[in-house]
Automatic annotation (TrEMBL):
<feature type="transmembrane region" description="Helical">
    <location>
        <begin position="75"/>
        <end position="95"/>
    </location>
</feature>
<feature type="transmembrane region" description="Helical">
    <location>
        <begin position="102"/>
        <end position="120"/>
    </location>
</feature>
<feature type="transmembrane region" description="Helical">
    <location>
        <begin position="126"/>
        <end position="144"/>
    </location>
</feature>
<protein>
    <recommendedName>
        <fullName>Phosphatidic acid phosphatase type 2/haloperoxidase domain-containing protein</fullName>
    </recommendedName>
</protein>
<keyword id="KW-0472">Membrane</keyword>
<feature type="transmembrane region" description="Helical">
    <location>
        <begin position="6"/>
        <end position="25"/>
    </location>
</feature>
<keyword id="KW-1133">Transmembrane helix</keyword>
<feature type="transmembrane region" description="Helical">
    <location>
        <begin position="32"/>
        <end position="55"/>
    </location>
</feature>
<feature type="domain" description="Phosphatidic acid phosphatase type 2/haloperoxidase">
    <location>
        <begin position="32"/>
        <end position="141"/>
    </location>
</feature>
<dbReference type="Pfam" id="PF01569">
    <property type="entry name" value="PAP2"/>
</dbReference>
<dbReference type="InterPro" id="IPR036938">
    <property type="entry name" value="PAP2/HPO_sf"/>
</dbReference>
<dbReference type="InterPro" id="IPR000326">
    <property type="entry name" value="PAP2/HPO"/>
</dbReference>
<keyword id="KW-0812">Transmembrane</keyword>
Length: 149
């Protein structure tokens, strides 16, 4: 069971990014790639980092004095950067292809659940990260579509 948690919590995200990258070599997906990049920067690079700076929260393994399944620095856990990133990408993808977007969002949830099981995050970290990611993806798509037309 630990191997499954480690796979989803640490490595599965790389597979998802790799799958997305395969499509970005086609010219028709350039705008989608730019939207995903903008949503990722907004959710993970700006909002998540600002919240972590002003409202630091110990990770479960720090607070409980246990070793996590996945090695990690004792940095702030709230909100989850993985959740904000992958839910932002999944939300943007959803606007282009609902089926692929739903699958990506489910995969994002699996990553979040694994990171809770690995003692890297509290459940609220994942929920907050998902909300930030979904909101960021939605905002980027809506704003970029206004500027595209």
């Amino acid at each position: 069971m630990d191997a499954i948690i480690v796979f989803f919590g640490q490595y599965f995200g790389y597979i998802l990014i790799g799958l997305l990258a395969l499509f970005f070599f086609k010219k028709r997906f350039v705008f989608l790639a730019l939207q995903m990049l903008a949503a990722a920067v907004l959710s993970r690079g700006i909002i998540t980092e600002a919240i972590r700076f002003f409202f630091p929260q110990d990770r479960p393994f720090v607070e409980n004095g246990i070793a996590p399944l996945i090695e990690h620095a004792a940095s702030s856990s709230f909100p989850s950067g993985h959740a904000s990133l992958f839910f932002a990408l999944g939300t943007v993808l959803y606007f282009y292809n609902k089926k692929a977007g739903i699958l990506f969002l489910l995969a994002s949830a699996a990553i979040g659940i694994a990171r809770v099981a690995a003692s890297l995050h509290w459940p609220i970290d994942i929920v907050a990260g998902a909300a930030i990611g979904i909101a960021s993806g939605w905002i980027v798509v809506k704003l970029s579509r206004k500027f595209k037309h």
